[in-house]
Amino acid sequence: MPELPEVETTRRGLLPHVEGRRVERVLLRRPDLRWPIPREVEELLPERRIDAIRRRAKYLLLDTAAGSALLHLGMSGSLRVLPEDTPVRAHDHVDIALESGRVLRFNDPRRFGCLLWQAPGETHPLLAGLGPEPLSGAFDGDYLFELSRGRKAPVKTFLMDQSVVVGVGNIYAAEALFTAGVSPLRAAGKVSRERYAALADAVKAILAHAIARGGTTLRDFVGAGGEPGENGEYLLVYGRDGTPCPRCRTKVRRRVDQGRATYFCPTCQKR
DNA sequence: CTCTTAACCTGGACGC
DNA sequence: TGCGTCCAGGTTAAGA
């Protein structure tokens, strides 16, 4: 579920409640999510102050002097700040209780998310090899153009490859390709420099707008205060097969490519 | 290297 | 009401 805007929305919602707070205790209701939760989470996090909450790609890092808790929301995860006596619901897997009387609660029905640990000064293997942040200056059309030469895989797959650029998932890839007028099925290596410039601009604009609207909620996602994101109402093609293209009124098409549903306008996206 | 596919897991929607 | 099938925002591991 959560792509960059949803993770960033979560980070911003957690910030005022979590940053600078001391952890009182950690409660694991199961020993694993996608992977086993390392012992450092239980052993090193309690009594530590959370100095900062950072986002890298779709990961959140809770920084302490002893190291950083590394979280990923997977497809269905959410992190909320709640009063500590809030009743537990299904799939509430982890509580990080704070001295403030509130609890940071990790809920994840499908358990594709993870909670790992990064030692001070180290880079977790999952963070090594990630591409640039899409909202940074390191990401632009020329970067995409140069990196894509010779690539035969579809440009949508290329755009969702976290070693190419981070944070773009199935929803925002479809939206950006539509906005840039690029066919999701075109080989990445066949897209022109001009189209990549438009695509990079579209990625930046679409992600920034989605963050401003608190992310997209299709099913599970809620922000740190439990509120759904409002960006779903602004999607142009994702999930809208059969409805008129907002630009030319041709019916938006859905097809499955590389095992993922993709949505596009066959008239507007030919390049 | 690049690319493709299966796998992980649960729940909701839909057809019969 | 119940059951089978398909689908879902992500990522990795394994194989070609």
Set down the secondary structure blueprint.
Elements lengths: L3 H15 L4 E6 L10 H6 L7 E5 L2 E6 L2 E6 L5 E6 L8 E7 L3 E6 L6 E5 L22 H8 L6 H6 L9 H11 L12 H20 L40 E5 L2 E5 L7
Antiparallel strand pairs: 1-6, 2-3, 3-4, 4-8, 5-7, 6-7, 9-10
The structure holds a DNA duplex (16 and 16 nucleotides).
Structural write-up:
The chain has 271 residues and is of the alpha+beta class. It contains 6 helices and 10 strands; from the N terminus they run H-E-H-E-E-E-E-E-E-E-H-H-H-H-E-E. The strands form 3 sheets. It has a 4-stranded antiparallel beta sheet with strand order 1-6-7-5, with helices on one face. Strand 9 and strand 10 form a beta hairpin. It is globular. 42% of the residues are buried. It binds a DNA duplex (16 and 16 nucleotides) through residues 1-3, 6, 34, 58, 72-76, 91, 108-114, 126, 150-153, 157, 160, 162, 169-172, 216-221, 238, 258-259, 261.
Kindly name the structural category: alpha+beta
Could you give a short account of the major beta sheet? 4 strands, antiparallel
Q: Which sequence of strands runs across the widest sheet?
A: 1-6-7-5
| Count of DSSP-assigned helices | 6
How do the SSEs run, as a string of H and E?
Answer: HEHEEEEEEEHHHHEE
* Average pLDDT reading: 97
Percentage of helical residues?
10-25%
**Basic shape:** globular
Instruction: Calculate the terminal CA-CA distance, rounded to whole Å.
Output: 28 Å
Number of strands: 10
Low-confidence stretches: none
Radius of gyration: 20 Å
Q: Work out the strand percent.
A: 15-25%
